[in-house]
Amino acid sequence: MQQVTCKNCNNQFSGKFCNACGEKIYTDKDKSLKSIFTEAFHFFTHFEGSFLVTLKTVFTKPGKLSLDYCNGIRKKYFKPVSFFFVLVILYLLFPRFPGLNMKLDSYLNKQYGFTWASIPLAKAKMETRHIEFSELVKIYNSKSSSISKIGLFVLIPISASFVLLLFFRTKKYFFDHFIISLELGSLFIALHFLVVPFISFIAELINRESASFFYDENYRVQYFQMLLDLFIVSIAFKRFYGQKWVWIIPKAFVYLFIFNLFILYVYRLMVLVVTLLLT
Which among 8, 106, 266, 268 has most CB atoms closer than 10 A? Predict the structure, then answer.
C-alpha cells in the first residue's frame, strides 16, 4: 500500500488515518457537497442519540451516568462536560428563565441581605460613569442575565470540593467527585431552569393566573423542590458511592444546605460585583 505523509504531523504511514495523530487523509471526494451533508447527518444523529440517552439516564437513574463513566462505560453517553455545556447554552437561549439572576432593585432590597455591598458599589458606579440610578439599573439588568448563567461553570469545581469533603473516606479521585457534581449540576439546570420554567410558560399560555403557582413566592412549590432535590441527590450518592442510607441521607442534606447557601448568597454576590465592574 502506498505510503502517504500526514499533513498534520508529517508522519509516514499507509491507510486512510494517521497512526500517530489520527488525522484523516482527505481526497477530492471529501470536498464534494455530498460529503458535507453526510458528515452533518452523522453529527446530528450521533448527537441526538447519545444526548437523549444521557438525558434519560440522568433523569431516571441519578448517579448511573457518573458511575458508568468513571468505570469506563462511556461510548453510549454524551460526555458529561459537553452535556453540562449544552444545557447551559440552552439556558442562555431562554432569557425568560431567570434562574439565579437577580435584578439590581432586588440587591438594593434589605430583605435579601446584600445592601451592605450593593448600595456603596452602585453609588460608586454612578459617580464613575456619571449616570442616574435608572440608567444604571437598565444597563445592569441587561448584562447580569448572561453573566449569572455563564458563571454556572464556577459552581462545578466548588460543588466537587464539597462532595470531596463529604466522601473523603471513599478514597476516590477528585475526577470522580467532579463527574458526579457535573451530573447533579446538569440535572438541576435541566429541572429547575429549563423544565419547570417551560411548564410555567405553558401554564401561562393556557391560563395566566395558573402560572403564579410556579413563582418563588409559592412556598409549597419551594418545599416540594427541596424534598425532590434531597431525593435526587440521595439516590445519586447512594448509587455512586454505595454507602448505607443512614450515611447517605445526612450527607445529601448537608450537601444541599451548603450548595444552596453558596448559590443563594456567595454566587449572587459574585454576580453583583462582576456585573457592576463590567457595567
Answer: 268
Under DSSP, is residue 24 helix (H, G, I), strand (E, B) or coil?
strand
Q: What is the mean pLDDT of residues 202-212?
A: 67
Determine how many CB atoms are found less than 10 A away from the CB of residue 255.
23
Stretch 155-169: mean pLDDT: 92
The SS3 of residue 5 is: strand
Of 152, 148, 162, 177, which is closest to residue 272 (Cα–Cα)? 148
pLDDT, averaged across the chain? 83
Q: How many CB atoms lie within 10 A of CB 218?
A: 12
Q: Give bridge partners of residue 259 from the DSSP assignment.
A: none
Grid coordinates in use for 41? 447527518
According to DSSP, residue 191 is labeled: I
Q: Which one is predicted more confidently, 34 or 102?
A: 102
Cβ distance 147 to 277 under 8 Å? no
Amino acid at 264: L
